[in-house]
Design brief:
By secondary structure, this protein is an alpha+beta fold. It has helices at 2-13, 52-60, 78-90, and strands at 22-24, 29-32, 40-48, 64-71, 93-95, 100-102, 108-111, 125-131, 141-149, 163-172, 198-207, 221-230. It starts with a helix and ends with a strand.
């Protein structure tokens, strides 16, 4: 019995990563690039919990903060192809209690997957990067996800803040620029060095009572901090 209780305690402290009775909620926010871009699309979004207990309840029961990216390009370019490949390699990004994960695979994975909600500080830390590992833009096109929290809530019961901000960056770091105009098109897409528009969506994956909990906390709000593109041409 004691061993079982210790195992359960450790599982909860680790964010119940083996919990299967969780469910992705509906989309909380969709932040679409205002146009195609040749340098970056960067979004910052804040998730807010009602209090410190609620944040602890959510993460300890296996809840996660999820990011999903899509590329809505209609005039696909080589950079769109690379961005879409990185989006596939990322899959669903999940911030968990003590880790962060992706559902995709491939490309070059960076950042620190041992950072979760309880490890966040009041300054951005890089949680995950996925960088193209081959092809024309190898090493130069990247998806980067950073996270931070506010100070611990005043209830002093072991939470790590009630406002969690995720910063999601789609970075086109290729430094070669060429302007394509009506005078020199030669069947080249005017936006050949651009990508997108991309759509960065925010969800929660919520604990449910099906895993034996009498109550669960899923009332989390989101608010946009910034949504911007950069073009150097």
């Amino acid at each position: 019995m004691a061993a079982d209780l210790l195992s359960l305690e450790n599982e909860v402290k680790g964010g119940s990563v083996n919990a299967t009775a969780v469910s992705e909620g509906s989309e909380d926010a969709s932040r679409v690039a205002s146009a195609v871009f040749d340098t970056s699309h960067i979004v910052e979004e804040t998730y807010t919990f009602a209090g410190g207990d609620e944040a602890r309840f959510f993460f300890n029961a296996g809840g996660t903060l999820r990011v999903k990216i899509t590329n809505t390009a209609t005039n696909s370019t080589d950079k769109d192809t690379s961005v879409s490949a990185l989006i596939s390699a990322l899959g669903n990004f999940d911030l968990r209690a003590t880790t962060n994960t992706r559902s995709g695979s491939g490309e070059t994975l960076g950042g620190d997957q041992n950072l979760g909600y309880y490890d966040l500080t009041t300054s951005y830390q890089t949680l995950m990067t996925v960088t193209e590992d081959s092809g024309t833009y190898s090493g130069n096109i990247q998806i980067k996800i950073e996270g931070k929290t506010d100070s611990a809530h005043a209830d002093a019961r072991g939470n790590n803040g009630i406002n969690v901000t995720l910063k999601v960056s789609i970075l086109l770091n290729d430094t070669t620029r060429t302007d394509y105009t009506s005078g020199n098109l030669n069947s080249v897409n005017v936006e050949a060095e651009a990508a997108g528009p991309t759509d960065i969506a925010f969800h929660t994956v919520d604990p449910t009572t099906a895993q034996g909990l009498s109550t669960v906390y899923t009332n989390i709000s989101t608010a946009n901090v910034s949504n911007a593109i950069v073009n150097d041409d």
